[in-house]
Amino acid sequence: MVPTDGSMVRPISRGLTLRAFIIWCILLPFIGISSGAKTRHFKWEVEYMYWSPDCIEHVVMGINGQFPGPTIRAKAGDTIVVELTNKLSTEGVVIHWHGIRQLGTPWADGTAFISQCAINSGETFHYRFKVDRAGTYFYHGHLGMQRSAGLYGSLIVDVAEGEKEPFHYDGEFNLLLSDWWHKSVHEQEVGLSSIPFRWIGEPQSLLINGRGQYNCSLAAQYSNTTSSQCKLRGNEQCAPQILHVRPNKTYRLRVASSTALASLNLAIGNHKMVVVEADGNYLQPFAVNDLDIYSGESYSVLITTDQDPSKNYWLSLGVRGRLPATPPALTILNYQPISASKFPTSPPPVTPRWNDYDHSKKFSKSIFALMGSPKPPKSYDRRITLLNTQNKIDGFTKWAINNVSLALPPTPYLGSIKYGLRNAFDQKSPPENFPNSYDVMKPPINPNSTTGSGVYMFGLNTTVDVILQNANALSDNVSEIHPWHLHGHDFWVLGYGEGKFSAKDEKKLNFKNPPLRNTAVIFPYGWTALRYVADNPGVWAFHCHIEPHLHMGMGVVFAEGVHHVKSIPNEALSCGLTAKFLNKKG
Amino acid sequence: MVPTDGSMVRPISRGLTLRAFIIWCILLPFIGISSGAKTRHFKWEVEYMYWSPDCIEHVVMGINGQFPGPTIRAKAGDTIVVELTNKLSTEGVVIHWHGIRQLGTPWADGTAFISQCAINSGETFHYRFKVDRAGTYFYHGHLGMQRSAGLYGSLIVDVAEGEKEPFHYDGEFNLLLSDWWHKSVHEQEVGLSSIPFRWIGEPQSLLINGRGQYNCSLAAQYSNTTSSQCKLRGNEQCAPQILHVRPNKTYRLRVASSTALASLNLAIGNHKMVVVEADGNYLQPFAVNDLDIYSGESYSVLITTDQDPSKNYWLSLGVRGRLPATPPALTILNYQPISASKFPTSPPPVTPRWNDYDHSKKFSKSIFALMGSPKPPKSYDRRITLLNTQNKIDGFTKWAINNVSLALPPTPYLGSIKYGLRNAFDQKSPPENFPNSYDVMKPPINPNSTTGSGVYMFGLNTTVDVILQNANALSDNVSEIHPWHLHGHDFWVLGYGEGKFSAKDEKKLNFKNPPLRNTAVIFPYGWTALRYVADNPGVWAFHCHIEPHLHMGMGVVFAEGVHHVKSIPNEALSCGLTAKFLNKKG
């Protein structure tokens, strides 16, 4: 695999001579100084608090009294240390650093039951990892549905000192997108695990940087909505964060979606957006009027403030892919020096029709890697096909992959695989395909499926192809969007297609300039083809990033080269069978 | 100390000769058979579920799909094994066996951060303990406010095979009392830890065996209430459990209170109750028209069905000690063969006025041990006085004992004391008294207090006197009832008094026939004097049994002879510093 990150460290162990290694070691301190790499320490406490994200007060999960959590800002090459104390009364907690590949630190990936034990109430865990590559990232809880409860924040990595982005901008804004329910996450979880099944429903609000308006509309005066015009002074927790710009400049908007459910579309009145980055990877720039963004994705877009400078403009965010029951989130692009409280002259941009999948597919298929980006290996060593189905298990509604619904074991895989604890999870490898006769266009003939905790084991440096195959859900004529997110890696998105993936689709795959991503969507009744190199020793979740879907079993676990993983901190292993093993081992 | 349990095992190690010991060893198997002692195994799973305890659906914490949890029924001398699996998604869990002294098994007491690590999500813990003495007990969660969430059930211990209770009855009923809020416990907890402080308020309903009626009244037709008459078929989750009796019989009512807050009063129309047991100890029988019962207490009362057999009668349960905002819980005493649906001819008994403390004190002071019960040692080795105050810490509202508000450390004391881990908690012993100048009749002059995790350490077999001293809360003219519950022991209740305990009160203490209890109330502006022998190696919580008060720091920790504790199971220690210690120790 061609390294995608330009880091100095990884190639060393591969092919350099001893002489080069010694020189490198001598130079290392100087490189360190010249690159300005820093270790950045953060001390965080997670706890519940009352908050009004959408002007209605509810309980949210906050960090250091903030919602969303504090933004981490670092430079490529920096080391981040987060000393995380769990101040929750009864719950465990972990934090996943979404998009950070955790090269060499798989135990810091922050996935409960996979990379570490949940941090117990009252205890402190030390996340320590390198942000090796500039980009727009975020972090979030990865235990139960704590992300839905509000446990998320931004992680922005700038280029290293002396480096430059391959595009110019005069200023930037950071927009972390999310969706919000008034029913507590605890109750949502119970509903999902009840008979009869109780779906969480559509979100009450969409939030931009944790701010939305439920009981009023910023743009009521333009529409025939029943909502009243918001009367906000600006200092409320739910007041929109205004984007103050100056005319004739270029701004970078960093946009990341931490939604629990909603696929989103973002548009700015009168302004085109040039898409330049996705999930920490540079793209071949392309212009759009509106941006589709699925949960788990991030983008950077450039906007030029070349419109009438006597006006302000709407930024609007709406729901895609599900019949929307949620009003758009809005904020204002304010052309200074005019007042931010001057209303735009036109109504906010309207989101494309929720089921206009052609629009979505057109957007996804416009995404290519920036010229000169790493290319995928020409062939794969192993290909697995993952059929996405909705199923029933003992009367419970679940999602399953190749007929197995993921049930995470109490002992995290990283430790149990490393120490060969064979009782910790299903030792049988899960299926790599599904029966050829399966009709993806119809509800399953036999909806019953089973739970499992098996792992797909890959030899280190295996080139893996994953074909994500969508299908009909339990109800007739329903096939949903699922954004799949891979931990510990980026993958090349080789292509999207309709119906069942077959040999003839092979030829349509893009090996020339496929984008590197960590999240890729499967469209209803379609497939998505991914390729990645299993070159990062560890155990990695690969799952639908829709929070309730993951909770219902929609994920798989990949492992590679775990015996190469060194020095897992004990604090990551102090539960279940690894705790017992360490006791015996001493 | 005179053993209170009549067990065969404990005296052996004290004073018997070797010869007697050998004889005893030979006889042991036969004693075992003749006593019929059994090991009773239970396999439980704790999870949230939808339930309608008061006809309104909410989320409750259930065991094996039941609310309240399954009733454990055993005989004195039996061993109980509960294999408890935590099926909660993000929360830990423990279960405390309220009233069981855990002689020799302090690690099975089920107090998170004190006797064991919380059982992590997905994991199983094995409680194994002996129920050495007949009585009416219950069990409940002891982490965060999980008891309030519905994690409780009954534990009834009958006399050993061939033994007899010191009173006769023809049948029995078991009534587990609780209170219920519509606001989730998660949100209640956040409110208690918020600035400004948000009190949980009065319960929406009182429950008898998990059953109450919020939106209707069983007795609407008798009163000028605005509630409508309940229309229940009897198979609803909220339908009252009818007490079916036959005329001219004697019935034992076992009554235990697991309320989060409410002090209760129970009465049965036209029927006197003879109180015969409290907290697993026999009482000198006395008759009452109504029974006060505080959270953490249990009683057995005998009723004789000597009333007009052509009628049914109300059993009514109301709130005491706080201005009530909760309707009474009701059920029917049904004289068979007449129909249970025949309404009593009179309205339900009315609870005494909430602040008629004279009534409450008269009841408490009528409780004496059954003649022949173990008597307290004549003098104490050490006396500590515990001042109960409401305080402020960094703007948060707390309860404190001698100006220290209990903040439990992440590493359970039992392990950290046993292994000498001095960083695990405050090594300084908490204060044993309060300044003489403190005016218990007025709000604190300086309301600020501190949190602490210190432990009162007692030498094994020390006779300890505890003077619980009530005081004025933060507001003028407010002093609340607090039922204090001791783990691992019973104590003798030597007396109750008004104002500040002083030398002159000493003479009024009852050393002749004080009742043995595990829970004793302090009345507003009063004191309660207790004596117990610290003869049970372990670490034991002593706390106000009002769930939000404990959550706000109203408790202390007692430890005695921890170095005598043998073979703490690793599963009780696999967190915090004990996990680290065991890793190193191997």
Automatic annotation (TrEMBL), chains A, B:
Q: Which InterPro entries match?
A: Cu-oxidase-like_N, Cu-oxidase_2nd, Cu-oxidase_C, Cu-oxidase_fam, Cu_oxidase_CS, Cu_oxidase_Cu_BS, Cupredoxin, CuRO_1_AAO
Main location class: secreted
Which keywords annotate this record?
Answer: Copper, Disulfide bond, Glycoprotein, Membrane, Metal-binding, Oxidoreductase, Repeat, Secreted, Transmembrane, Transmembrane helix
Provide the Plastocyanin-like domain boundaries. 46-158, 173-336, 446-561
Which cofactors are required for activity? Cu cation
Q: Per the similarity annotation, which family is this? A: Belongs to the multicopper oxidase family.
Query: Does the keyword Disulfide bond feature in the UniProt annotation?
Result: yes
Q: Which organism is it from?
A: Juglans regia (English walnut)
Q: Tell me the function of this protein.
A: May be involved in a redox system involving ascorbic acid.
Please state what the protein is called: L-ascorbate oxidase
**Which Enzyme Commission number(s) are listed?**
1.10.3.3
**SUPFAM superfamilies noted in UniProt:** Cupredoxins
Name the catalysed reactions: 4 L-ascorbate + O2 = 4 monodehydro-L-ascorbate radical + 2 H2O
Q: Which GO terms describe its biological process?
A: negative regulation of defense response to virus; response to hydrogen peroxide; response to virus
Pfam families documented for this protein: Cu-oxidase (PF00394), Cu-oxidase_2 (PF07731), Cu-oxidase_3 (PF07732)
What cellular component GO annotations does this protein have? extracellular region
Q: Does the keyword Membrane apply?
A: yes
**Where does it localize?**
Secreted
